[in-house]
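Supplementary Methods S3. Input chains for the assembly prediction are listed below.
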Amino acid sequence: DSGVTQTPKHLITATGQRVTLRCSPRSGDLSVYWYQQSLDQGLQFLIQYYNGEERAKGNILERFSAQQFPDLHSELNLSSLELGDSALYFCASSLLGGSLLGSGNTIYFGEGSWLTVV
Amino acid sequence: AQRVTQPEKLLSVFKGAPVELKCNYSYSGSPELFWYVQYSRQRLQLLLRHISRESIKGFTADLNKGETSFHLKKPFAQEEDSAMYYCALSGGAGSYQLTFGKGTKLSVIP
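Predicted structure tokens for the full assembly:
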């Protein structure tokens, strides 16, 4: 158990709908990352938050948004869903938000949320 | 731009045979390299990182800056090693996320 908790584990929804995925980081971790894992694109970094503020943005669509709350949990909002958004969405957390070099800052992953858009 | 290439989508080896999972990277600075393992679409687990120079579950990986490679090796494969393996890169100071390769599925044949 990595200590990163994600809900829901599975979600089936229709095209055009909106869903929210929730993530609780490991106790004490300030940084939260969201990744999308699909069969064709592999693991894609979406976005990172550090202590409530957006720190880095990756290949995140405009239909998607995220935030990190004062208690450090994070939510990923996916709207106007399309069939191609079906994927496994991972949340990860780490203590720090900056350089990983030599700091022992390890990124721990949650079990993911399976999203199926029908 | 940083990029990680894992040339093999699938690697099948017999139990007891040596394993080498290839990883090449592209980055202009001094990267930090990792190997993550994923069993049956479960969470990704950190297997090892190059700065630790450790051996986990019999796996080792050496960073070769000249060849920009970070190949994962194990002398004797076991059935429980069957999984997806992802090589990942963090670009150092100012870079906050991991860039993953496409992954290699290791299948150990009994």
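Chain B has a mean pLDDT of 89. The interface with chain A takes residues 30, 32, 36, 41-46, 49, 51, 86, 90, 92-103 of chain B (CB under 8 Å).
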